[in-house]
Amino acid sequence: MIPEEAIAATLMELAHRRGPRASFCPSEAARLLSPDWRPLMAEVRRVAADLPLVATQGGVAVDVRSAKGPIRLRLAE
User: Which domains, and CATH codes, for the chain?
Assistant: First the structure.
């Protein structure tokens, strides 16, 4: 199990590296945290919901908690 703090730190590091206008796939964070990253995806999304990040689908903001399918994350403005 990856600690929530490690997930949050990885998500925020990726977001800050990209800057306020660029987004990233949550799987990028999961891949940095574990070679067996797929099982982490639900936890990565759950942690992202409590961070100053915006989730989007097709460029439109969505609720990370209820979004189905692929999302992207970026810093909240």
Answer: 4-75 (1.10.10.10)
Distance of CA 31 to CAs 9, 55, 62, 74, Å? 14, 18, 23, 17
- Which segments of the chain does DSSP mark as H helices, in order? 4-18, 26-33, 41-48
pLDDT, tens only, 34-55: 999 999 999 999 999 999 999 9
Tokens 């995806």 -> residue: 41
Please give the model's pTM, rounded to 2 decimal places.
0.95
**How far, in Å, CA of 44 to CA of 40, rounded?**
6
d(CA 5, CA 39): 17
